Task: structure prediction
Amino acid sequence: MTATLSGGFRDAPTQSARAFRAILDALSRPGTIQTLSGPVTPPAPLSQAAGTLLLTLADATTPLHLAGDLDTPAVRDWLTFHSGAPLVGAGDAAFAVGTWDALLPLSRFFIGTSEYPDRAATLIVEMQDLSPNGARLSGPGIDGHAFLSLPEVTAFAANHRLSPLGFDCFLTAGDRLAGLPRSTRVEAA
Amino acid sequence: MYVAVKGGERAIDNAHAFLAEERRGDPAIPELGTAQIREQLRLSVNRVMAEGSLYDPDLAALGIKQSRGDLIEAVFLIRAYRTTLPRFGASRPVDTGKMTCTRRISATFKDAPGGQILGPTFDYTHRLLDFKLLADGQTPPAAATAPANESPLPHITGFLDRDGLIQPETGNAETPPDLTREPMELPAPRALRLQALTRGDEGFILSLAYSTQRGYGRTHAFVGELRIGTVAVEMEIPELGFAVEVGEIELTECETVNQFTGSKTEPPQFTRGYGLTFGQTERKAIAMSLVDRALRWRELGEDDTGAPAQDEEFVLMHADNVQATGFLEHIKLPHYVDFQSELELIRKLRTEAIAARTEAAE
Amino acid sequence: MTDQSYNFAYLDEQTKRMIRRAILKAVAVPGYQVPFASREMPMPYGWGTGGVQVTAACLMPEDVLKVIDQGADDTTNAVSIRKFFQRTAGVATTEATSEATIIQTRHRIPEQALTAGQILVYQVPIPEPLRFLEPRETETRKMHSLEEYGLMHVKLYEDIARHGSIATAYAYPVKVEGRYVMDPSPIPKFDNPKLSDSPALQLFGAGREQRIYAVPPFTRVVSLDFDDHPFDPSKAPHDCDLCGASESYLDEVITDDSGGRMFVCSDTDFCRTRREAGHAGRLGEAQFSSKKIANSFEGICPPTGDEA
Result:
């Protein structure tokens, strides 16, 4: 029970503000890697970056999907206590978190409507590692091109082709975070 | 030699000090207390509560005092305060059928169970200035009172309901969207429209309702019932497992009975418009019920005659006086930059036009 | 010093989360207007409530905030908004464009090029570029979804037919990343080129109309035009009379009642920096201290006896 109650923001107004700026930086500059090294300590296997992101953005109004091995009682209790986000299936999720394999197939996630593309889901992909090499990225937020260690290329390229529809992604590893909006063109390097 | 100078901050501070002095007026005249406003300018307080969407007569009175009697400004003060309040939960729907009425009239039936209760109304006052009020300190003699009617008064439309003469309103278990917490999305369900109307500007709603009476989306309204009184507000407390009464509020409710010629599938039947507002605010409640009815043309299979009151987007996007007054008045803020760009454009277009004309003349 | 009776940056945390989610979706779909549940702020709609909410949701304690209105740090509403954030967030403020991490603006983009890591927050009155051609939100939403912008091109073309050129001088419509037509807020068209490929993140907030939209860094923003009538970001053919700059946007000031005019930079920081560096225009002189220009009234002052 103490594990459930602890590990949140100690001073939410300022700590979540700093976390949000890192998240905003990550999404508006795809290919950059940010650090979310605040006080948030979620229960394993949820990473510090994913936990911080969810506590910054999720609440009772944002249905959340826990994919695969992340869906443990400890993670459920912790997220429910700290964010109040209702836990749902993939199709109803505003946020979904899990490893790449656990999130597949991606067609389960909402990509918005042509009149309201903003209603698309945000996926948080838990990774072993994040590095500025791998797939070649270009598009808004990127001066020329950038590289990022994505779990695959095809799915992201296909998602970009749906743009302005499509899901948006954050990739997390430990306390590190990268963003990949649907607007980013993804190619094999 | 010219220099750029500044002093905006001091100018603002001085303006605020001047404003405070003007608000107080002649210090030789006793200061107005908020309790006096609450008790003696109650209809102003009610309007501020209705359009401010916050039931708190003391704060509404404070808003009126602070705003020097500018009711839209007072509504704004209340709204800005309301938006900072934490939400503990939602009450159960109030039951206006259990209202303790101070006023209850029907224009459709001469008498009905519970009777007509005139209550505190201007309706039959002769609009003659009462110069006795110029002299202060007069407490009017107590009004004759009948014993309070404790048994609930049935809704007049219920009698029509029972005979199938009026279109039934079916309940809906869905939680209605909250206009103050979610962006407006069109088309809007009726619950959202009613929220926008009840906090909409009284003058705007009044004029729209009046326009329907004059033929712009006419709906032939009768006031089936107008009731004013207090109802209990109850809240479910999950820890207790039952609802407890958390307070009592005064409401005005108006149900109109409107003609309906029927459709291919429905035999002729009356329909209704609905108005519900905080406090005794009957002009607003009646107007609201007419506009509500006009906006229902689509669900009732009526024609869109192009009347303003039938136009959901027009009505909902322009009913809010805090939004309207802000945008209207913002044009007095500096616009040097955009005006300058227009100025340059006009000069350029004029130069070109004059040159072209001269050329043509030669 | 932060006013303890308010939450950091005034808004409650739930409201900030809602606005932050909207900002992120705006970044993900550049130029698309994301609906958000705008709150009633303690300043009127039209005074920058959208920009204020976006700034409040972005601010962190380490930020250095600059607020400008018409390009100037000292216009009354800029002063008022800056004071609001000093009071509720306790953040440092500056007038220097280069020192700011967040700049909230009404009607201008600073002259000095913005840098990576800066956020420019625009106050937007009418976010819908198609609004004056089609007043209905239900219709304009459809047009954006279908990428149906013919109406806008017809309007611009009618301008050309009637006036010989496009008669839009401010809030000149742009297309973002080849997809959404966007209103850049009422900045003069002179500023439009600065929207494109900026290293800074640009966020737009419309409070009354409940919309947030974004132009991420290094995003292509094109002002609408025609091959035979290319976009022309021209400005008045004058130099600044105070600092002599030829490349800045100018305010026109009436100096007397017999037709006297002077032109001065609308960007007060830009103008002051130039004067402090020794530049002088037709009617000004180089200023090596900014003290002289503080603590008087807002505006432009002719020489007085004690000016020595």
Summary: The radius of gyration of chain C is 20 Å. Chain C touches chain A through 46 residues (CB under 8 Å).
